[in-house]
Design brief:
Blueprint: E1 5-9, H1 14-25, E2 29-34, H2 37-46, E3 52-56, H3 62-75, E4 81-84, H4 99-124, E5 131-136, H5 140-143, H6 148-167, E6 172-179, H7 186-190, H8 193-202, H9 211-222, E7 233-236
Parallel strand pairs: 1-2, 1-4, 2-3, 4-5, 5-6, 6-7
Helix pairs in contact: 1-9, 3-4, 4-6
This protein binds nicotinamide-adenine-dinucleotide.
Nicotinamide-adenine-dinucleotide (NAD) binds near residues 14, 39, 86, 88 and 136.
Length: about 240
């Protein structure tokens, strides 16, 4: 069963924005949330007349995640896809973090996906309905990062994926995409120059990794063509850091 009604977090820019467009092009209904209200408005303007529902929601807040899911499940009870895409990368060494910032990075990148995945599964599993979750990790979660908090949370996203694949089997497939350096994104702009150059030097394929290309991998993992994959990690990285 391919999904037809999908939640994408962080849809206002980057990979999330590209994925919203890809899924709408495939005639799906898309629900997205973001903290970037102007970004959501321009997204809604871009796709006016198409089945797109936008919500201002901070995935780092348990209350806001619950209120968002209440609205989504009431308006779209047939929802069967979830992409935990929203992410926060600050690009600083661990010594430069205060406790509040540590909490924020963990909440956006880990707690939000945990809360949303749990609500999504609690909606589908009792009815034995099938669905798919795609999480966004990073090469940083596999080989380390000059930002230790980011490396930590992205490794956590990989663990969450494999574990939720077990928790939600056999009805909900849960897979993770691990991108390299995605150009034209706010996150790429925050990568220290020396690390940006190292990422580019590591790539085996020529051509940049665009948000649209990462969105294609996410769309594949939502589709039936990946029907035998769960708990799987797909790299979207031009072959960098072979591992
Ligand atoms: N850009 C890269 O080079 C890169 C590399 C590897 C992995 N990733 C991961 O891919 C995913 C997408 O990244 P991107 O490059 O498109 O980033 P981006 O910064 O362009 O987009 C992320 C979106 O998430 C939203 N967001 C941030 N915090 C939020 C919150 N608390 N609640 C709701 N929305 C929030 C932002 O407003 C933004 O619209 C992220 O999980 C990121 O960590 C990115």
């Amino acid at each position: 069963m391919s999904v037809d009604t999908v939640i994408v977090t962080g849809g206002a820019s980057g990979v999330g924005r590209a994925l919203v467009g890809r899924l709408l092009d495939a005639d799906m209904t898309v629900i997205t949330c973001d903290i970037d209200e102007p970004g959501l408005k321009s997204l809604a303007d871009e796709h006016r007349g198409r089945p797109l529902d936008t919500h201002v929601t901070d995935v780092a807040s348990h209350e806001e995640c619950d209120a968002f899911m209440d609205r989504v499940l009431a308006a779209h009870p047939g929802v069967n896809g979830l992409v935990n895409n929203a992410g926060l990368y600050l690009g600083r060494p661990v010594q430069d973090y205060d406790d509040a910032t540590i909490e924020r990075v963990i909440a956006v990148n880990i707690k939000g996906p945990v809360w949303l995945s749990r609500r999504f599964a609690a909606h589908l599993l009792p009815a034995e309905r099938r669905g798919a979750i795609v999480n966004l990790a990073s090469v940083a979660g596999e080989v380390g990062s000059s930002d230790a908090l980011y490396g930590t949370v992205k490794a956590g996203v990989i663990g969450l994926t494999k574990s939720n694949a077990m928790n939600f089997a056999p009805y909900i497939r849960v897979n993770v995409v691990s991108p390299g350096l995605i150009v034209n994104t706010a996150i790429a702009d925050r990568i220290p120059d020396y690390r940006y150059a190292e990422y580019k030097r590591q790539e085996q394929l020529d051509g940049d990794i665009l948000p649209e290309y990462v969105a294609d991998v996410c769309a594949y993992l939502l589709s039936d063509r990946s029907r035998i994959l769960t708990g799987a990690l797909l790299r979207a990285d031009n072959g960098s850091y072979p591992r």
